[in-house]
């Protein structure tokens, strides 16, 4: 698990003084928590019958679980399904869309691809937008009316970041994503993969440079400062777990259950918009519908995770917990960037509106 640690260790130690800074006494820290799922019901090349059965099982188990949980504002845990357009099955997406209409989540775009050109990638993304629009999914920019989407790159290979060039091939990917309506990328962290960037525990703007891994560095999103770059990168925590002698990469895995010390590291990662350390963004990721993630044990651990967050990080004095989708997290980030103050729940629909016709989650 310590593979390729040299890629990001310098930035990790440079951030330590900031992580240790005390926050203002008497001011609660807002924890904005989001699960982004590389949702792959076809994992392992299973049949369509198995794919649909996995989707049904996952949604049923998760809905039963989240009905028991609420954040500071009474909102249940929110889920972001980054569905792979290259593994698209209409009935699966219909089932996920029905689940999202209950108020439990939203759908964004996930893509595995390789050997593409700038133009072929653009066409795949435009096609993905049209397909998901047909299901009443994605979001709308309130200022322009354009359809927008969040993105996770398959095989971690955003912007041709694998040294061998596999699973992408497009150095211009940041520019292509922006031009097709992407509002932010949620791929990282990818450690221990060699696609991991040197910049960690950050929300920042990356600039297209026509070179591989152009998002390796960037300009931090800051309160009161205009955007500077081509695409916002929203990272999850990447930390060293000294107790266990391994890295903490914000992954929800059956082989690495969530524990109290893992959650503490997510909080200590301190990912925030510069100038607003009182709002911390925690983004964890998983691969839903893998067989080892459809067990009672896996969902029991998720249940424990939500209970722990609501007990330890939602007392209203030190911490206030906010569940959010990827889109809602982005909206809160943009609101803070623009100078907004107050409870983050006020900004769930700040610049992007969901296209989903939601009913009240019960």
Please characterize this protein's 3D structure:
With 362 residues, the protein is an alpha/beta fold. Strands 1, 2, 3, 4, 5, 6, 7, 8, 9, 12, 13 and 14 form a twelve-stranded mixed β-sheet that branches. Strands 10-11 form a two-stranded antiparallel sheet. The protein has helices at 9-19, 48-66, 90-104, 118-133, 173-179, 260-268, 296-312, 326-337, and strands at 29-38, 79-84, 105-111, 139-141, 147-153, 182-185, 203-206, 219-220, 231-234, 239-241, 246-248, 279-286, 319-323, 352-354. The N and C termini lie far apart (40 Å). It is built from eight helices and 14 strands. 29% of the residues lie in helices and 19% in strands. Strand 1, helix 2 (48-66) and strand 2 (79-84) form a beta-alpha-beta unit. The mean pLDDT is 95. Helix 2 runs parallel beside helix 3 and helix 2 runs parallel beside helix 7 (296-312). It is globular and about 50 Å long.
Q: What's the quick description here?
A:
With 362 residues, the chain is α/β, with parallel strands linked by helices.
> Low-confidence parts, pLDDT < 50 over ≥5 residues?
none
Secondary-structure-derived class: alpha/beta
CATH topology, what is it called?
Answer: TIM Barrel
Distance between the termini: 40 Å
- H/I helix tally: 8
Under the CATH scheme, which class? Alpha Beta
Helix content: 25-40%
Features:
alpha/beta; twelve-stranded mixed β-sheet; 8 helices; globular; two-stranded antiparallel sheet
Blueprint of the fold:
Layout: H1 9-19, E1 29-38, H2 48-66, E2 79-84, H3 90-104, E3 105-111, H4 118-133, E4 139-141, E5 147-153, H5 173-179, E6 182-185, E7 203-206, E8 219-220, E9 231-234, E10 239-241, E11 246-248, H6 260-268, E12 279-286, H7 296-312, E13 319-323, H8 326-337, E14 352-354
Parallel strand pairs: 1-2, 1-12, 1-13, 2-3, 3-5, 5-6, 6-9
Antiparallel strand pairs: 4-5, 4-14, 7-8, 7-9, 10-11
Helix pairs in contact: 2-3, 2-7, 4-5
């Amino acid at each position: 698990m310590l593979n390729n640690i040299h890629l990001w260790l310098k930035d990790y130690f440079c951030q330590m003084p900031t992580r240790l800074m005390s926050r203002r006494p008497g001011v609660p820290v807002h924890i904005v928590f989001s699960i982004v799922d590389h949702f792959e019901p076809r994992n392992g090349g299973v049949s369509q019958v198995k794919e649909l059965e996995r989707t049904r099982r996952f949604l049923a188990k998760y809905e039963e679980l989240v009905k028991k949980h609420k954040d500071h504002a009474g909102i249940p845990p929110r889920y972001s399904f980054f569905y792979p357009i290259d593994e698209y099955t209409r009935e699966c997406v219909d089932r996920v869309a029905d689940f999202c209409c209950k108020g439990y989540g939203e759908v964004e775009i996930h893509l595995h691809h390789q050997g593409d050109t700038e133009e072929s990638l653009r066409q795949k993304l435009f096609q993905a937008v049209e397909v998901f629009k047909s299901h009443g999914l994605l979001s709308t920019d309130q200022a322009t009316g354009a359809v927008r989407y969040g993105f996770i790159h398959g095989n971690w290979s955003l912007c041709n970041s694998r040294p061998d060039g596999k699973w992408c091939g497009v150095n211009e990917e940041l520019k292509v994503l922006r031009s097709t309506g992407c509002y932010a990328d949620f791929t990282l962290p990818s450690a221990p993969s060699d696609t991991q960037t040197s910049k960690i525990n950050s929300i920042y703007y990356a600039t297209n440079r026509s070179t591989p891994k152009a998002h390796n560095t960037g300009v931090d999103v800051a309160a009161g400062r205009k955007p500077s770059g081509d695409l916002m990168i929203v990272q999850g925590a990447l930390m060293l777990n000294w107790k266990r002698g391994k890295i903490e990469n914000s992954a929800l895995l059956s082989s690495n259950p969530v524990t109290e010390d893992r959650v503490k590291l997510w909080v200590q990662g301190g990912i925030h918009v510069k100038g607003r350390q009182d709002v911390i963004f925690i983004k964890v990721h998983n691969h839903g519908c893998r067989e080892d993630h459809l067990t009672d044990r896996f969902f029991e651990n998720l249940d424990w995770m939500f209970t722990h967050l609501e007990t330890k990080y939602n007392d209203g004095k030190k911490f206030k917990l906010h569940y959010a989708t990827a889109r809602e997290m982005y909206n809160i980030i943009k609101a803070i960037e623009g100078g907004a103050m107050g409870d983050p729940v006020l900004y769930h629909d700040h610049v992007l509106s969901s296209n989903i016709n939601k009913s009240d989650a019960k």
